[in-house]
Amino acid sequence: MDPSEVEIPPLKDLTIDNITDNVHLINSRCPDPRLKYVLELLVAHVHDFARETRLSSQEWMAGLQFLTSVGQISSDVRQEFILLSDVLGLSLLVDSIDHPKPPSSTEGTVLGPFHTHDAALESNGAEISGDPDGEPCLVLCTVKDGEGRPIPGVKIDVWETDSKGFYDVQYSNRVSPDGRAVLKSDENGQFWFKAIVPVPYPIPHDGPVGKLLKLLKRHPYRPSHMHFMFEKPGFDHLITSLFPRGDPYEGSDAVFGVKESLVIDLLTVDKELRDEYGIEEGSKLIRHDFVLVTESDTSKLRNERAMSAMRAQGKRMKMYNGLPVPDVD
Predict the structure, then answer these.
(1) Which of 83, 172, 188, 274 has the fewest Cβ atoms nearer than 10 Å?
(2) Which stretches within the chain are classed as H helix?
(3) Which of residues 228 and 114 earns the better pLDDT score?
(4) CB of 182 within 8 A of CB of 127?
C-alpha cells in the first residue's frame, strides 16, 4: 500500500511496557471490526506471553524455526499445521466453540490431517477398504434430527486407516483412494458400508510435531477410530469419530479427540445380519445413530454462549457476522 494513502498515527518512544499499546494504535484503523478485535487480542496475548516468560532471543528464534519447519513439511497429503493444532488441543477447542451441541446431538471431534477430497461417491453397502489383512466390520448407521426424524440425502464422508495403522495417503505408491468413501443417507436416514475394524496408530512423528512430543515426553498414538463427516444444507457441519471401547490409548489420545459419548461397543454380526447384508457371521459390527443440529439452532446456541462468555469477562460486546466484537456504539 502506498504510504501516502495511509494515515498512520505517530508512535511513542518504544519500551517493553508500551510496545503493545503502540501496535494496537497502528492497527486501530482496520475497517473490519472482527479482524481488528481478533488481532488486538492476539497481539496482547503474544506480547504478554513474551513478558511473562521473559522470552529470550534464542527461544524466539527457535520458535520461528520450528514453525518454518512445520510449513516446509506440509503438503497436499500431510498438513503438519493441523497436526500441531491437534496436539496442542486447539483443534478440539475451536470445534467445540464454533459448533456447540445440545445434549441430545452427536458431539464433534478433530478432523485430523488425513481427510481428502478425492473419495468416490459409493452406494450403500460399498466395501471401502481393500486391505486383505483387515478384520471385516459391518457399519450400520442412521442420521436423524433432534426430534428423531430421519434426514435423507446427507453427504457422509468416511475414512479410516488400514490394518497396519496407515492412511492411504501415507503410501508413496498410492494410485487411488482406499479406506475412504462418500455416501448418502437414504429416505430412512440410513447408511451402511463394509469396512475393517479400526486399529490404534501413531500420528506422523518423523517431523517437527513428533520432535515436540518427544521433548514433552508424550507418546504419538491415537486410539482406534473411524472418521465421519456430515454435510447437508440447513444442518450444522459435523466432523466426528467413533472410538471402539477398551483401546489402550482411549485415555491418552495424542490429539485430545476422544469424548465419552463417541466411545462405542463393538458388536457382532449374527445370522440374521449375515443374510441381510452379506457379511460373514461373527464379523464385528458398528451400530450408531447420529443426530444432527440445524444451522439455526447451532447459530443461536453459539451466540448465546459467546455473549455469556463475554459478559463473564466483563466485556460489552455485540455480534458481527455471527461473531463477537466490541460494542463501541
Answers:
(1) 172
(2) 19-27, 33-53, 57-73, 80-87, 90-98, 208-215, 271-277, 295-312
(3) 228
(4) no
